[in-house]
Structure formats: C-alpha cells, structure tokens
Amino acid sequence: MLRQDIFAVTDPERIRDLIRTHAWATLISHVPDRGMTVSHLPVLVADGGPGDALVLTGHLARTDAEEHQLGAHDVVLVFQGPHGYLSPVWYEATPHVPTWNFVVAHVHGRPVVLGPEHTYGVLTDTVDHFEGRFPEPWRLERVDAYAHRIAAAVTGFTLTAARVTAKAKLSQDESDEVVHRVVAALTADQPYAHPQLARAMRDSRRQQ
Predict the structure, then answer these.
(1) All structural domains of the chain
(2) 3-state class of 33 per DSSP?
(3) Which PANTHER family match (predicted)?
(4) What are the start-end ranges of the E strands in the chain?
(5) pLDDT in tens, 158-188
(6) CB 24 within 8 A of CB 42
C-alpha cells in the first residue's frame, strides 16, 4: 500500500475501532508450493494484548485453515472501511480527476491455532459481537449441542500484530470548501451516494 503521511492512520484506538466496525476481513497467505491463498472471515479485537499490542481473534472453516497452512507462516489481514468513487464534477474546481476515497488497515502477523475449547470461545464471542446490536441478542448457547457439533469443522486462531499499516484517504489534501461539496454529493440522491463515507470525511476534517 502506498505510504503517504497525510493519509496515514497511527492512532491505535482508531485502528481498533475500524476493525470493530468492519470486522469482515480478508486473510492473505503465501503458501510454499501453492502460492497465494485468500479467504474471507470475521475477525474480532481481543482485549489485553501484551504491551498494548493489537491482538485479534478469528475463525474459518478447517479446510480453509489447512489451505492456508495456518500457523506455519506470516499472513496479512485486510480490513476495509467505508470507500467510494468521487466524481470531479463534485469539486466545482479544476484541475481534478476522478479518485477513490477509502479507509483500510493491513495487519501482519503469524496466527496461533487454537484448540477446540478456545475455538468454541471465539465462536461465542463472534456471535455476541454481532448480535449485540439487537435489543434481544441471540446467543449460541440456544443451540449448544448443534453448535459444538459443527464447531469441530472450524479452526480458531489468535494473531498478535507484528506490523500494522492503516490509511484513511479522505480528501485531507483538499480545502474545506471542496470537502463540503464532496460530502454534500455523497449524501445526495445520486448514483455514488455513500453517507458512511461522507461521515468519515467529516470526522477526519474535525481531527485535522
């Protein structure tokens, strides 16, 4: 990922928040004699990392874990926040060309594969994380016997981040007037409307 200081995200809590709110991750491995292997999975932020290190937990199908040779080598987890196309028409200023605003984090590290009991704990935590938005959350214990049976085909893991690269390209290099016009376009009734991206741009402007 292209490194640009103006777009770099270094605040650990901001990175954790990105992962918490966009927990559907892409797992990328380079497996010897097989090449690149890619999977998609939910990943959570774990508490209590050593020295405030970022610690993640996740799970994927056992066959996927075997394809990645999970735990045998380093991997990258990619978390993608709000993103979208920006038309130069919205800027009402020249010169501008089409571009893409986005928020993303890359977490590098080597997973530690968990045993059945801890894997079931990851499954429980994952359900609780996503169900927590409902007024009456569903709990895995409601189908405990069934859940334990299918959990045998799941591999859980933890990953302590060895390196994190995060970027929020949100028009920080543009004037307040231009950002205001782009935000207005993103919240209007038009083909590339994206209120969540507009909110991220407003938040970024306040943090500058």
Answers:
(1) 5-173 (2.30.110.10)
(2) coil
(3) PROTEASE SYNTHASE AND SPORULATION PROTEIN PAI 2
(4) 8-9, 24-31, 35-45, 55-61, 75-86, 99-109, 112-113, 154-160, 163-169
(5) 999 999 999 999 999 999 999 999 999 999 9
(6) yes
What one-letter code names the amino acid at 153? A
The letter for the amino acid at 101 is: N
pTM exceeds 0.85: yes
Cβ partners under 8 Å of residue 179, min gap 6: 171, 201, 205
List, for residues 103-116, the tens digit of each pLDDT value: 999 999 999 999 99
Q: How far is CA 27 from CA 13, 96, 119, 156, in A?
A: 22, 35, 18, 13
The proportion of the chain whose per-residue pLDDT surpasses 70, expressed as a percent, equals 98
Torsion of Cα atoms, 203 then 134 then 166 then 75, to 10°? -170
Residues 6+ apart with CB under 8 A from 25: 19, 40, 41, 42, 43, 58, 77, 78, 79
| Strand 112-113, strand 55-61: pairing | unpaired
Label residue 186 left, alpha or beta by phi (over 0 means left) and psi (-120 to 50 means alpha). Answer: alpha
Number of other residues whose CB lies within 10 A of the CB of residue 125: 15
